[in-house]
Design goal:
- Helix content is 39%, strand content 21%.
- It has ten helices and ten strands.
- The strands form three sheets. A four-stranded antiparallel beta sheet has the order 1-2-4-5. Strands 3-7-6 form a three-stranded antiparallel beta sheet.
- A hairpin with a 3-residue loop joins strand 9 and strand 10.
- Helix 8 packs across helix 9 and helix 8 runs parallel beside helix 10.
- The longest helix is centred in the first third of the chain and has 16 residues.
Amino acid sequence: MEHPLFSLSTRPDRRILSYSHGDVDMTVTPSARGRATIFDADILIFCISQLMAAVNAGKPTARTLTLTAHDLLKATHRETSGDGYKRLRDAFERLAGTRITTNITTGPKDDPTETTTGFGLIETWQIVRKTRAGRMVSVSVTLSEWLYRAVLSKSVLTLNRDYFTLRRPLERRIYELARKHCGRQPSWRVSVETLCLKSGSTSPRRVFRAMLREIMRADTIPDYLLLEEPGDIVCVTPRGAVVEQGGTPVLAPEALEEARRLMPGWDVYALEAEWRAFWVTSGRRALRSPDQAFLGWVKTKKSAG
């Protein structure tokens, strides 16, 4: 979330992105199909949610995940038709083809060592489908070692389910930055210039500022409120509690399976994240049975429509 790895363009972006901020230098090199987009990142988010659920449940994990194609498509708001297959394939091609080169500083502060490393976001992918009907059955993804280590160290944050309904790339990127920088703070203030740099936007400053003001007027960013302040400053404040991974009740895999049965077509891991946010805002009360509390909440949500 800190650095603009993904393209905000809706057209193939074949430009090499060079980015520097603080002590971090980064180069993102696209494939012939273009740089991975912020919508392609939904696939990684879904994979990460699967891994985090396994980590929280104490189950073994691996870099290669085999997913139910229908769950992936529904969770990422993709079509389940033949056209959906083509778009998913293109997304995998961009994710696998986008290469990242960055410097990593290790060792003691008085004698640091800088290491330059290159990696991709995913290593391999596979889609299994019924050839006559064109229906996708399963998807297999092997994450990069870098991304897998980040998940195991719980260097990830949950996202509001409404994030996936945001259709403008800049809205998504602004939400990611707000989630990263304002997770536990009362507010986050950033200059328009720095925000433009962090977002990865290639628009001129005046155009970027106009797009920001449009987002502020629409007020569509989940969890956060954006306000313009004097001095070309944007102030981001949380609307309510936002939950980070860790320190919350652990659900058994059986509870998630039951939730999937109760709410077919829903992403059960997004439901889990929403329930955890509800648990925090209701006072973090002690739960004798987290599974029963979660399933009761799911049933209430289902009956409410």
